[in-house]
Amino acid sequence: MNLTHIEHIGIAVKNLDATIRFYEEVLNLKCYAVEEVADQKVRTAFFQIGQTKIELLETTSPDGPIGKFIEKRGEGIHHIAFASENLNQSLIELQKKQINLIDDKPRKGAEGFNIAFLHPKDTSGVLIELCEKPE
Ligand code: ZN
């Protein structure tokens, strides 16, 4: 396992545009991309701070993962994403250690990253994403 830094923190929000305004006007960060990930039923907005990004997530449908999360737990931190230098290898290691995975193979996330989620029941309740920058 070779994780290099916190790539991003994912935050579930009810109103993406209003939250973008807060991050820009109050926190003085610049939103550099808004992207819809149809697969995940989300609209995302990205901010860079140091090596780390903030990923705001707004559901595009009440039955999407973010819609369900907000219904159950309200707005707030949804996941933490660690940058992996070799996602395939990381997933193999996790499987050997019998860690429950939501994704046993990498799939495409926002910004073309390869991503995979670990199951929160094995991570003390934190939804952990591993991600690898596309070549
Ligand atoms: Zn993420």
Spatial order of the strands in the main sheet? 2-3-4-1-5-8-7-6
The residue ranges in which pLDDT falls below 50 over 5 or more consecutive positions are: none
Number of helices: 3
CATH superfamily: 2,3-Dihydroxybiphenyl 1,2-Dioxygenase, domain 1
**pLDDT averaged over residues:** 95
CATH class: Alpha Beta
The secondary-structure element order is EHEEEHEHEEE
CATH fold-level label: 2,3-Dihydroxybiphenyl 1,2-Dioxygenase, domain 1
Please report which band the strand proportion falls in: under 5%, 5-15%, 15-25%, 25-35%, 35-45% or over 45%: 35-45%
Number of strands: 8
Question: In the residues, how many domains can be counted?
Answer: 1
- Terminus-to-terminus distance: 19 Å
Radius of gyration: 15 Å
CATH architecture: Roll
* Derived structural class: alpha+beta
| Share of helical residues | 10-25%
Largest sheet descriptor:
8 strands, mixed
Backbone shape: globular
Describe this structure in words.
By secondary structure, this protein is an alpha+beta fold. It has a single domain, classed as Roll (2,3-Dihydroxybiphenyl 1,2-Dioxygenase, domain 1). The chain is 22% helix and 39% strand. It contains 3 helices and 8 strands; from the N terminus they run E-H-E-E-E-H-E-H-E-E-E. The structure holds zinc ion. The site of zinc ion (ZN) has 6 residues, from strand 1 and strand 5.
